[in-house]
Backbone:
């Protein structure tokens, strides 16, 4: 019984320390929301997760774009390659708070392997990098 009484304050203290560590807030379902945006080809919705600058690699187009430019780049890509399906194949996180998502994007024309990198910025996770590579 004494052990339980001593452990409880320790657990409470650790919980407060972890919350005040300066890590970004975990946004419930952020990967799922990004996947839904890609699945529907909705560049505006996808752009709501963009950082102020996004590194994009697409077949025939590559560069670092502002949030507004990146939205236009993705809008053009989705218009030329309308989505038929998008599946998340793998997702994960690093100790530094970054997250990644690897998926398969299918359009009328091709199948693409995709990679999204999210990093903490302004106390939330934001898309820093997008890659679509033709299979």
Residues:
């Amino acid at each position: 019984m004494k052990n339980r009484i001593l452990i409880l304050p320790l657990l409470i203290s650790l919980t407060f320390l972890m919350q005040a560590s300066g890590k970004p807030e975990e946004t419930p379902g952020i990967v799922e929301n990004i996947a839904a945006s890609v699945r529907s080809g909705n560049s505006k919705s996808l752009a709501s997760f963009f950082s102020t600058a996004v590194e994009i690699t697409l077949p025939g187009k590559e560069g670092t774009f502002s949030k507004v430019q990146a939205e236009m780049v993705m809008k053009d890509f989705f218009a030329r390659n309308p989505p038929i399906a998008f599946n998340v194949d793998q997702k994960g996180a690093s100790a530094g708070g970054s997250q990644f998502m690897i998926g398969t994007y299918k359009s009328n024309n091709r199948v693409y392997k995709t990679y999204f990198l999210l990093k903490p910025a302004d106390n939330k996770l934001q898309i820093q990098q997008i890659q679509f590579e033709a299979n």
Observations:
- The longest strand covers residues 83-93.
- The two ends are 60 Å apart (CA to CA).
